[in-house]
Write a structure and sequence with these properties.
Strand content: 5-15%
Largest sheet: 6 strands, antiparallel
Distance between the termini: 66 Å
Structural class: alpha+beta
Mean pLDDT: 83
Number of helices: 10
Low-confidence stretches: 121-125, 245-262
Order of helices and strands: HEEEEEEHHHHHHHHH
Helix content: 40-55%
Length: about 260
């Protein structure tokens, strides 16, 4: 019975994986328990989960929104089937898989995902350096407390100091040891924040972060960035080595650069 349950779950999640991969979702590594079999799929804005509740024999497809730290866990049920491993077979598992995939491929669901992604991008458009710092917490979780301390101890976020001291060394470390997938994901995030960020955020990305990394990694990272950011960085490299004045209360980074222009 246990083998049939696992086999059915694998059939269903396999089909769901194929459907969601085509929509840009990633299957995350997640452990099942003795009470539930679990699978999780995430995008930038939406998460889906297939869960089999063993004692109820319920196979459930769920969805929730994504936050900077992962799924918000406000799960909403999209479809539920009963799968009895004592009487049901691969045929029933295939039927459940087909239904779940049909739900996930429906025009309404796909539209909802696109709207959520568009809304998230719109929110990102208001991004400032503090928002950028929080995005880096996804890659370097230990920065969460550092960001919190910065907010609690200073009236305004000291962006240049924060990124120079805490982010650049970690980016160098990832460039030295990170996988291509990790680097591509981070480069995509930086490119998105550059595209949607305010002027201070753009300056932080080009002049502080990108110019701050070891030159031996420039080519390694450069090809992973968006064309827009690659072009901007090309001009920002001319500023490498120029001093930036200490940050002052409520002072824009753009006015702290001794009159230099990007």
């Amino acid at each position: 019975m246990e083998n049939m349950t696992k086999k059915a779950f694998d059939i269903i999640t396999g089909k769901v994986t194929d459907t969601l991969n085509a929509q840009g979702f990633k299957r995350e590594k997640i452990d099942s328990t003795d009470k539930e079999l679990l699978s999780l799929f995430t995008s930038e804005s939406v998460a889906y989960s297939v869960i089999y509740i063993i004692d109820k024999m319920h196979m459930v497809l769920r969805s929730c929104s994504m936050t900077e730290e992962g799924p918000d866990n406000q799960w909403k049920t999209m479809a539920t089937w009963i799968f009895n491993p004592e009487t049901d077979t691969n045929k029933e598992a295939e039927s459940i898989a087909a239904d779940f995939c049909e739900v996930l491929s429906s025009a309404t669901v796909v539209k909802r995902v696109k709207q959520a992604k568009k809304k998230k991008s719109s929110d990102d458009g208001n991004a400032d350096p503090l928002f950028l710092a929080k995005r880096f917490v996804t890659y370097f979780p230990e920065l969460k407390e550092t960001v919190k301390a910065e907010q609690e101890n200073y009236e305004s976020f000291r962006a240049v100091n924060f990124f120079t001291t805490h982010v650049v060394p970690r980016v160098n470390g990832m460039l030295a040891k990170g996988s291509k997938g990790e680097l591509s994901k981070m480069a995509q995030m930086i490119s998105t924040q550059y595209s949607n960020g305010d002027m201070d955020t753009r300056s932080i990305i080009t002049i502080v972060i990108l110019n701050g990394i070891d030159e031996k990694y420039w080519d390694k990272l450069g090809g992973l960035l968006s064309e827009e950011l690659q072009n901007s960085w090309k001009y920002a490299k001319k500023m490498k080595g120029k001093n930036i004045r200490p940050e002052k209360k409520k002072k824009s980074l753009m006015t702290a650069m001794k009159g230099d222009k990007l």
